[in-house]
Amino acid sequence: MITDGFLFISLLLAISAVLVVAGHSGKLKIFKYVPGFVFLYVVAALLNTVGLFDHDAIDGVGDGLQDALLPAMILLLLFKCDVRQIIRLGPKLLLTYVVTAVSIIIGFIVAYLILHSALAPEAWKGLGALNASWTGGSANMVAVQKILEAPEDIFGYVLIVDTVLYSFWLLLIFSSVTVSDKFNRWTKADTSKFDFAKRVGEESEKPMTLPSIIGLLGFSLFVSALATKAGEMLPELGTVVNATAWTILIVSVLGLVIGSTRWGRAAGSSQLATIMLYLIIGIIASGSDFTSLAEAPLYLVAGLIVLFVHIVIMLIYAKLTKTELFSIAVSSTANIGGIASAPVVAGAFNKQLVPVGVLFALIGAFSGTFLGLLAAQLMSVTG
Predict the structure, then answer these.
(1) pTM of model > 0.85
(2) Exposure pattern of 19-48 as b/e (b: 16+ CB <10 Å)?
(3) Is 71 within a domain?
(4) In-domain check, residue 276
(5) Which residues of 306-345 are buried (b: 16+ CB within 10 A; e: fewer)?
(6) Number of structural domains found in the chain
(7) Is residue 25 part of a domain?
(8) Given this model, what pLDDT does residue 202 score?
């Protein structure tokens, strides 16, 4: 049994390193469909299930590290989010993105209303975290889990649902490319050339250096500490706006501001944030126990209900507003998939439109946490 906090964190980092190296080697195709941090969650949870971790001894270290890394990770992930580029998308595309996010929130509320009597009392917290992932990304998911203090077991269920249904959804979206013309004729969409086309990423990122890495690490952790102190001094509002929520809001706004300056192009911000994400998920997973998997299928059903509601609403929206399939597909993928898949889907429709996928995903990186908290708040009062 591990009773030493340093050994505990080192083990999680070592497992993460093995998974990242294996994923980037290209030899294991499974990493194309299942993110490495999902395997990390499964491994860490299995180790906890067999009794490897002494939580009385290590929880203080894990919780302290998670509290420090979460705001720093959110801050770094938003360095690439340039508000000026997002505005250039134009009102129609931005409206499509908003409707997509709203349809997902409605889907979660409908699913919770149908299933809440069969779910655990705190299931709304886990579903709120899943909503954050499906309107943002994995970082937003762990942020909401931390803010709401969703039970680790429930978080494990929704993480599995996230992975399974995301893979299914991505396959469905890619398949939709072949019916794009028929869909556009059905909606009577205007498929003329998009006019917002300023490319994202024309300036290539400079290579990572020791000054860039230590600068990002020092700055992000210092801001995390200051934002945490500030969050503790602000009042709690309702069920979901607590000190941690205030902290995340502070670093999110600051990250958005930095993303619109030259400092947002600092080399290594995404890589450093990814390392933090792995450690945070590992710490969360170390509190999960796989001996209670009876409820897991119910969360899968909840996810399927969300996707069904999302499809119905987006079809109605597309027909009423004469929206082309490209905008619907990329917006949906940016919400449910995130930065890794949205540009790929955009490129499948038209390689010139890859920046749209990037920008949609960046909107989610900022808004996903708050949309997840909103959905959680609504579910908590409707159940």
Answers:
(1) no
(2) bbeebeeeeeeebeebbbbbbbbbbbbebb
(3) no
(4) no
(5) bbebbbebbeebbeeeebbbbbbbbbbbbbbbbbebbbbb
(6) 1
(7) no
(8) 46
